[in-house]
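Q: Here's a chain of 219 amino acids. Please give me its 3D structure as tokens.
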Amino acid sequence: MAAAALERMIAGLGAAWPRGVAVAICAPDPEARGLYPVEEAAVARAVAGRRSEFAGGRRAARRALAALGHPPVAIPMAEDRSPVWPEGFVGSVSHCAAACIAVVARTEGFAALGVDIEPYDPLPEDLLPEIGSEAELAGVGPDRRLAGRQLFSAKEAAYKAQYPLSRTLFGFDGLRYDAGARALRFARPVPPFARGQAIPVSQWTGDGLCLSLSALTAA
């Protein structure tokens, strides 16, 4: 089961997982139970799979908040579809067909978080040019299609982390992988980020999953 595999992966990371970042994992919920009215309204017209993953993600988010001492609360969806976290907290949610993950931290320690979970299988060849350059793919790993999956996940996590700070939309070409620094860098200025500024991303693979986390510490 993917959710259990993800829990095992994170439990085995030890000190590699950033201190102060709470994490919770849930399976998607086919019944979409436990949603608050504002959350239910956000996915009222969504297909069943989307509702299932959304409900699992919100359940995981509440569990992550609870780990930091916050009581259960609705987590609305903003107009740009991003989660609206309680005051004093930052977080991120990701889901695939078999697992949902949420990460949360307090704002005194972190400026933003971005998380992404993907099945660790090769991307189709025709998608690779959209994800990154040949140099980027080669810097990730020798298997181009698996490298494409890892690069996709890393860029998703970094994008999610930068977005609450920049409120700027851009494509995969907005971030470039720097193999030497093992980080993603902005290809152009995205205030408050400068061109070339690095966004750190940690990534782990195993049990058929690829997990990426970008944690931006508070200034």
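Q: Can you summarize the key feature?
A: The chain has six helices and nine strands.
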